[in-house]
Amino acid sequence: MAEDSQAWPLVTSTNDNCLGSDCPLYKECFVVKARKKAMDADVVIVNHHLFLADMVVKESGFGELIPQAEVMIFDEAHQLPDIASQYFGQSLSSRQLLDLAKDITIATGRN
After folding, report:
1. Domain limits at 56?
2. Is 0.90 topped by the overall pTM?
């Protein structure tokens, strides 16, 4: 299904389109049921993006998407650093670095 399909919002769950427990269909919601099952599971398989998105959600104090685990196994683990930098990294342009260096020079009085 194409992401611009009119049906897409009907079969996806995001912060933008999910009312959570305020939704009149909350008790019947497939996503809610799947999350509850995952919380009770002994083994949960998720991709890198969902794992890292869960870390962001937990860090914000908003909740959690997947349960805590003592061991995580990543398939294609060589991709994890790049994907993690998308979630937790910051990027600076050369202009921003030059401005920062200028500010440090001024702040330390080293002209």
Report:
1. 8-108
2. no
